[in-house]
Predict the structure of ATP-binding cassette domain-containing protein.
Amino acid sequence: MLELKGLTFAYGAVKAVNQVDLFVEKGSIHGLIGPNGAGKSTCIELISGNRKPTAGMIVYDGQDITAKSISWRRHAGISRSFQRISVFDGLTVADQLELAARAVGESDLDTIVAELDLGNTLTEHCEAVSYGEQRRVDIALALLGEPPLVLLDEPAAGLSRDESLQLADHLAHLAEERGTTVLIVEHHLEVVFRICSRLSVLEQGSVIADGVPEEVRREPRVMEAYLGRAA
Ligand SMILES: Nc1ncnc2c1ncn2[C@@H]1O[C@H](COP(=O)(O)OP(=O)(O)OP(=O)(O)O)[C@@H](O)[C@H]1O
């Protein structure tokens, strides 16, 4: 579904992403984890097309998309969350979701609203709903139109443990129902271990471990770099 080959990106002298190889299997929820500054968000920006790599290749559905624009990638079905839920002031959640659904030809908005428990927020203005609800609207927007690949950068940031786990379950359920492949950057390790079928661990721009969660959890280098400290 998605393959990164030798992907590299530098901000000036800082090599944020260094020769990253990564394979995201179709239909999986793949976690990209690692300590602060490891290069996770930069990877998401490279895949979505917001930044261009200095070296390496991005292959999506068998096609080299490294030089493709953001809008090309969006049309090809690569969607991402934005952590902002309305581009127009004064819209209600329903307005925002319906507008976006129409734009991408989503026919099953009701299921997304129900699964993400957004029914009670529909008549509220986007800026008036709670932070947790905003996070869920953001995910709803990313899932509209049944994109084959959804990139989520810290969807549970700022949520309580219970809210995070609930969000993870809703997300996993929707992804499975709709056959969506998800690449998720997330600091809440409980969320990651609950829903991800594969994990890649970045440290200082390089992949230091890759595999099923139980394998990755046992890697001494991962424990040292990240899990050990968090556990
Ligand atoms: N706009 C920028 N300009 C310069 N350096 C940047 C910029 N954005 C990120 N960096 C640097 O690139 C490296 C990777 O950052 P990135 O945000 O991709 O890591 P991350 O793993 O997502 O971190 P976090 O978990 O803290 O969000 C870090 O050293 C960071 O300081």
Notes: The beta strands are 2-11, 14-24, 29-33, 55-60, 63-64, 78-80, 149-153, 181-185, 198-203, 206-211.
